[in-house]
Amino acid sequence: MYIGFSEAETFLRNCQDAVIITHRNPDGDCTGAGFAMKDILRQLGIRSRVVCHDVFPKRYDFITEGETEEDFEPQTIIAVDIADNKLMGKYQEIYGDKVQLCIDHHISNKNYAEKTLLRADASAACEVIYDLAKFMGLKLSKHCVECLYTGITTDSGCFKYACTTPHTHEVVAEMMREYSDINFTRINRYMFDVKSAGRIRLESRLNDMIETYLDGKLCIIAVTKELIEELGITDGELEGFAPLTIQYENAEVGIFIRQRADDYKCSFRSADEVNVSKICETLGGGGHAKASGCNLSGDLDDIKKQLIEAVSKAL
């Protein structure tokens, strides 16, 4: 059931002992949203803990460090930035059919929770949470604002992606005015500019690894576990490479494939008019019109053929 801010506020003010679920392969938005929600619940006097299938990348230490894991039997299950409970990883089996509130911004949300606060026009789940907190009349902590800003800036590509709206800029302007002691420039630097030696080596390799199909309208980059091990990088350092796939002049769709322990994560990007969310839905995934994804298992060459066929039909 889809709900608005009023019902979401009532739910949060009356919940107890909450588990906050973030999606596997955590990015800035789900990490920021998870720990921002933990801050908000703490302000309301409610115990909570944030869980994730994977370890949060080191680049988000300024968000996650110092956050204690409170021990309690959960009475409330909240999901943030998760369009499909399949994205919970190992927590799908535990909590997948028990989510009471989902806060999300993906138009492809499967409506798996009892209550869903969905704003498909928002740049990030963190933008939705900021607006909810304002609606509730809460004075946010400095840490909470750092969490929310991180989610917004990363999911909007530092405000250059199509999901960036006038309201996105207004939210960030409010943050900067009210929390002038936060070094927002430093957050952007660590999100977009600071890289490990392994990531820099990978970037130099990726330009030579781009494969083009369908007369150059589709570009694919595939990163295998062997390459990840060779360069000594972590899964968290693979975040943010999908936009490289639509840098080619004639590219309409780009796909960044990365091998995981049990499958391949395929991140789609649209350069202009193609709705990649609809393509991903045919492959069991979803997301946004310009940025979406799916998970596929099997042989990499067979997966590429499947992807090429799906994009060809869309074009």
Can you walk through the features of this model?
The protein has twelve helices and eleven strands. A six-stranded mixed sheet has the order 6-7-8-9-11-10. A five-stranded parallel sheet has the order 2-1-3-4-5.
For the structure shown, list the relevant keywords.
315 residues; alpha/beta; globular; 6-stranded mixed sheet; 5-stranded parallel sheet
Layout of strands and helices, then pairs:
Blueprint: H1 5-14, E1 18-21, H2 28-43, E2 48-51, H3 61-64, E3 76-80, H4 91-95, E4 101-104, E5 115-118, H5 125-135, H6 142-155, H7 166-178, H8 184-193, H9 197-209, E6 211-213, E7 218-223, H10 225-231, E8 253-259, E9 264-270, H11 276-281, E10 286-287, E11 291-296, H12 300-314
Parallel strand pairs: 1-2, 1-3, 3-4, 4-5, 7-8
Antiparallel strand pairs: 6-7, 8-9, 9-11, 10-11
- Which strands sit side by side, in order, in the main sheet? 6-7-8-9-11-10
Note poorly predicted spans: none
Order of helices and strands: HEHEHEHEEHHHHHEEHEEHEEH
Per DSSP, what share of the residues sits in E-state strands of 2 or more residues?
15-25%
Helix content: 25-40%
Number of strands: 11
Largest beta-sheet details? 6 strands, mixed
In angstroms, what is the radius of gyration?
19 Å
Number of helices: 12
Q: Structural class of the secondary structure composition?
A: alpha/beta
Quote the average pLDDT.
94
End-to-end span in angstroms?
34 Å
How would you sum up the global shape? Answer: globular
Question: What does this entry show, briefly?
Answer:
The chain is of the alpha/beta class. The protein has helices spanning 5-14, 28-43, 61-64, 91-95, 125-135, 142-155, 166-178, 184-193, 197-209, 225-231, 276-281, 300-314, and strands spanning 18-21, 48-51, 76-80, 101-104, 115-118, 211-213, 218-223, 253-259, 264-270, 286-287, 291-296.
